[in-house]
Every structure is written in C-alpha cells, then in structure tokens.
Write a structure and sequence with these properties.
This protein is α/β, with parallel strands linked by helices. About 40% of the residues lie in helices and about 15% in strands. Helix 4 packs parallel to helix 6.
Length: about 220
Amino acid sequence: MTKYPRAIIFDLDGTLIDSVPAIRETLNNIFSSEGVAEFSIEEVKTLVGFGARWMIEEIIKRKKIESSVSNLEALLSQYYTEYLRVSDKFTEIYDGVFEVLNELKEKQIKTAICTNKPGSTTIAVLKSLKLIEFFDAIVTEDDVKHRKPDPTHLNHTLTKIKAKPNESVFVGDSETDMETASRAGVKFVFVTYGYCHIPISNIKATRIIEKFNDLPKALKFLSD
C-alpha cells in the first residue's frame, strides 16, 4: 500500500492545468492592435512562468513596441481582463488530475496550491474548472511579499495547512519550482510535461514523472 506524505503542495500552470492556449489567445487579442504577428504555442511557452508583468515587458522588448509606464499598465490591465474572458474556453486540465486529486482527498491528505499567478485569475480559473474544492489552501503572488522562488512563498503555504517541510512534497514543472522546494527544504516531484526553461537533465528532484497519473507511484518512496 502506498504511503502518502501529510501534505502535497502543487504549482498550478504547467502542473495541474495547461494555460498556454488561453494565454496565447489573450496575447493575440490584445496585441493585434499593435500590429504584432500572431503568437505561436511554442513562443508563448518561452514567456510563461515569470508572471504577467514580466511577460508583457518581454513582449514589448522582443516586438520592439513603443511603450511607456502608462501603456504597460494599460496592457497589463487588458491582459487580465481578456485572460479571464477566454480562460474557460481555452484552459485544459491535464489527464489524471481529477482522479489523483480525488484519491488524495479520499485519503484526507492536505493539499494546497502555491502559484505565482494573481489571486483573482487563480480563483476564477479553479472555480470554472471545478478544481477549487480539492484544495485546503491557495496561496498566490498576492498573498506574499516575495513569490517563488523565494522559499517564504512555499513556507507560507505550508503554514496555512499546518504542515511541516519534512512531511510535505511540492509538485511542479519548472526550475523556479525546483529552486523553491530546495530552499524551503521540501521534497520535490518534477513533472516533465510543463513549461520548464532548462534541460530536464539539469533538474534535481526527488522524483521525476512524465504523467500526472504517475504521482501516486512516485510518492511510494516515502514508504521505502
């Protein structure tokens, strides 16, 4: 019988949900008026993982768009509004997520989300996808002074569900998640299907999985 940790913390984008199609749709809609060519899925993947503000700033640099502080803030506001409008239709849940989360809930394992996504978009997406009921806590970039990879983001999440680092596991898809787990002293399970920007060979994790369905098996090390 598989032994589970007391608490499992999840990253959101690239781990539980594929938000790239929704982000692509959003970017294409708001930048079309700037004369920017349509973004491809692969290009969007290079832009995710560092927050919406960084993404908009990076696009302005890459596309050589004339910008000012006021224009940046306007684009950021448009981004959040448009993302909320299209996320229902274009966001996809990875295979196995519902089944595994339901299994964890049945076993009364504490679960939480630790994401660099803003609170409003995080809650809206989780509600629309009917995922919110699975989590005991949701800690976004709005809830902390320093977001991932600062370990205080993950530590605050653990505090919210009254769990200790040595009895918890963090599941994520990026080098940011890897660094966060390492600095917080939490075991790390890396999923290969997300938005990592470095070679997988450079990832240091307790376990590496290719499908979310493999998570229960990956947790078996706790009973070895």
